[in-house]
Specification:
The structure is a homodimer of 210-residue chains.
Chain A (H helix, E strand, L loop, with lengths): L7 E7 L8 E9 L5 E9 L10 E9 L6 E9 L4 E5 L2 E3 L6 H13 L4 E5 L3 E2 L8 E10 L18 E6 L3 H10 L3 E4 H20 L2
Parallel strand pairs in A: 4-10, 6-12
Antiparallel strand pairs in A: 2-3, 4-7, 5-6, 5-11, 8-10, 9-10
């Protein structure tokens, strides 16, 4: 990433729903379980491809190197909605005509430079169900590395500035805690929850007999 | 939950930003790392309490019963944004003047009927960083149960219809996979990722040496 300056927000303005390209705001009227009419405000993506029926994929990934412990690649990028750098697994929107697996391989290649093998695809999950209709699938992928050191070249779209960080799997939770203490840095909830689940299983197994 | 009928959406209408009470749509103008001016569309909650600086809490919870394996309580509720029942950990918005811990204890009591003890509070996490400014903290809580069987009474707000399900921790991942196969049912990404992390740590420990 060529980082020449810290990103800065110059203005935040109400966006009329009619002018929004990517996101829309809708009022849902519905009849609840008791027969009572109610309403709910929802933010939706306008870009969901009909083919996959899912907005996005995130790639839980394991890098396997002949001489190093299994690791995972995280991406750090400036996210205007939070005015902060977020720490996430590589992720992206599913394009029209793609399956979740295809989107995962393509986006992983673009953001990380690596070719990957899909080893698992989760069911569709609700990204933030009280607020939005956005949904996603977690695609687990593996990358088999050679001995070479250097990270491959990314194929980023115009405007994408994505820093890659490789973290040993065994240190993932501690590293996310560390990132969370950094100024202007926030870990994404999905990645944090995965790491917290790993940490929970490892540290609480005896206490809870799991 | 008194469930007399399946919820049904009667209309979905564009919501002018000026009329929205809970959510707003904004256009952020910013200067990126290379000095290039760019814009981003963002959905934000209008309700963030200044005191905590965080929108919401979710309660990762462990129920400890004298005679049963450690379990966790999930809530299933109709979520209009997805027109589906979601499976989640209890969660709620942080009120003005509350800390995340206080909100967790209050919301857990309201949604589940149980008094709980907070055993851990996560850093602030970004709920869906490409789409919204929404953020949250994961608060881990424990509930010590007596021998009695019955679930305590909920204290739900008007319009809340929340079904509680108790799942042994060791079965969490499999149960979420099962729920994901049910019609009109979606698991929340945060809960699914936590369970997937637990499952990963348990099943891949040998393969990846973690």
């Amino acid at each position: 990433m060529t980082k020449t300056q810290e990103p800065v927000i110059t203005s935040v303005a109400d966006l009329p729903t009619s002018e929004a390209k990517w996101v829309t705001l809708q009022k849902i009227s519905y009849i609840d379980q008791t027969g009572t009419p109610r309403t709910w405000e929802v933010a939706s993506r306008k870009t969901r491809a009909a083919s996959a029926g899912v907005d996005a994929v995130a790639m839980g990934n394991v890098l396997l190197h002949p001489a190093r412990p299994p690791a995972t690649l995280l991406v750090i990028q400036y996210r205007p909605p939070l005015d902060a750098y977020t720490v996430e697994w590589p992720a992206g929107l599913v394009d029209e005509g793609e399956t979740a697996e295809q989107a995962a391989v393509r986006e992983f290649r673009e953001e990380t430079g690596y070719a990957c093998e899909v080893v698992g695809v989760s069911p569709v999950q609700a990204a933030d169900p009280g607020l939005s209709s956005a949904n996603m699938q977690l695609v687990m992928v593996e990358v088999r590395l050679g001995e070479e050191e250097a990270l491959p070249e990314q194929r980023l779209e115009d405007g994408e500035h994505i820093q890659r960080v490789v973290v040993p799997l065994a240190e993932l939770y501690d590293r996310l805690m560390e990132y969370s203490r950094r100024e202007r840095t926030v870990v994404s909830a999905k990645l944090f929850h995965f790491a917290a689940g790993m940490h929970f299983a490892k540290t609480q197994a005896e206490k809870y007999g799991i």
